[in-house]
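Lab intake sheet, docking and co-folding queue.

SAMPLE TYPE: protein with bound small molecule
LIGAND NAME: glutathione
LIGAND FORMAT: SMILES
REQUESTED OUTPUT: full 3D complex as structure tokens
PRIORITY: normal
SUBMITTED BY: R.K., bench team

The fields below were copied directly from the construct record.
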Amino acid sequence: MTQGVTLFGYRYSVYNWIATLALAEKDIPYIWVEVDPFSDQTPPVSEAMVDFLARNPFKRVPVLLHGDFSLYETAAITRYVDEAFSGPTLQPSSPVDRARQSQILSIIDNYAYWPLVRQVFAQGFFAPCFGEKVDQDALAAGLRTAPAILDAIAAFKRNGPWLLGPALTLADIHLYPMLAYLAMVPQGAEMIRNIPSLEHWRQEMAQRPTVIDTMPRFKDPG
Ligand SMILES: N[C@@H](CCC(=O)N[C@@H](CS)C(=O)NCC(=O)O)C(=O)O
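RESULT FIELD (auto-filled):
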């Protein structure tokens, strides 16, 4: 019998979206356990939070549970989801393409997440949406840094609909949620439009049913 999958996540987390998108592409059902990794309440208020904290000492979502196998770090999760389950393969086969995919994931985690999501999206969309104070310096810093990051990623775009060419890979799945969050801020959307290959790819991704199904829902800002 196939063991069940559980995902500990926070509904607005971009990393959670990456994980749910990978699960959706593989058509894997899962149980969702909502936890807020930004909550400072001590002791933790729910059993789910206690369980989550025991599973990830770094207090970051998502955490995936498959049977009794517990896993955190999104790139490890999406790779596991691809390799442990049947369904369409989400990783290229050649060493060169696999290396490029790993490189793109690493660039996104190390250089893109903070400015695109934690600075531009968090300050330009999330804070106003939820009535929180906007850190204008952080927003400005993210807007300054983002174009060079988009250029670096766009330099890897191959011919074909997806980042690495003819087949969707974990690189597309890791990048799309970050760019979708960036694009929720008008200046971010414009930066992407200024790079036609990236904008074209973004539009292709936006139409995938898995993307539409897994997209986090926000209240209208303002
Ligand atoms: N390296 C982690 C990063 C995950 C991450 O930063 N998740 C955010 C939500 S998008 C989080 O849990 N943040 C809590 C915090 O920063 O305190 C991964 O790849 O899963």
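REVIEWER NOTE: The longest strand covers residues 5-9.
SIGN-OFF: pending second check by T.M.
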